[in-house]
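hey can u check if this looks right to u? its 273 residues, i copy pasted from the old doc so theres a chance i mangled smth
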Amino acid sequence: MELGQNFSAKLEPFLLMAKSAKGAAAAKLVQDATAAPGVFVFSELLEVPNVQELSKNEQHSKFYSLLQLFAYKTYQDYVEHKDALPPLNSAQITKLKYLSIVSLASGRRILPYSDLLKALDMPNVRELEDLIIDAIYQDILRGKLDQKEEQLEVEYTMGRDVEPSGVEGLLAALQNWASTTAAVLSTLDAKINSIAAEATHQKNVKAEYEKSLQLTLKEVHDKNKDKGVAARRVYERENMGMDVDEPLEMRGGKNRKASQDSAAKPLRKRNKF
């Protein structure tokens, strides 16, 4: 759930009552709305005609200024203009300090305790941390208390009402953000396309290498095959020659053996009768 999602709903009862409240009743309504738990946005209430009429009434104009204070300003603004505003009760002071933290966080993410103690007029760090923890529990902001570094690390906050005079500045900031985002996305797209092109090139190079390797292996295999055939033919020719000469040698060997056998037999003397 987003921070501040239900804040507008908490304002609805006051918007309904403002349609019929005039003068002192409208002034009392402003006091009640700025003190009510869970009500942190006020721009819609400022636009109600009966509430706007307060700014034209000298007796009640300070209540209209009070509503503007809670819509757009900070606790320091209250301190500086206290004499021109109605006195605040403890609930209103606490709420205004919550909203002041939100305004401070809009300018920077890291808020040192020293700056917060001064801006919120807090007596000590313990009460400051209690205030911040309460704001976190009420979904006004989210962040982490760094007691070692004595600072508040803000993750994000609810959105406050935008003062009419600040709309142009907000639009300019949004346009600048949109331009920066578009430039970043364009750079990312170019990088992604470059990576994809390089990947395709490497794939083609690998395919060419594999093709060349397979062709080389085939050539080597064919050459070895031809050499084997030639060697076998030479071997066969040599063996055929040996087979032709062998019978003569064998016959010669046999004749020689027969002569040797004859020579080995002892001669016998024959007697004549």
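Strands lie at 110-112, 141-146, 151-157.
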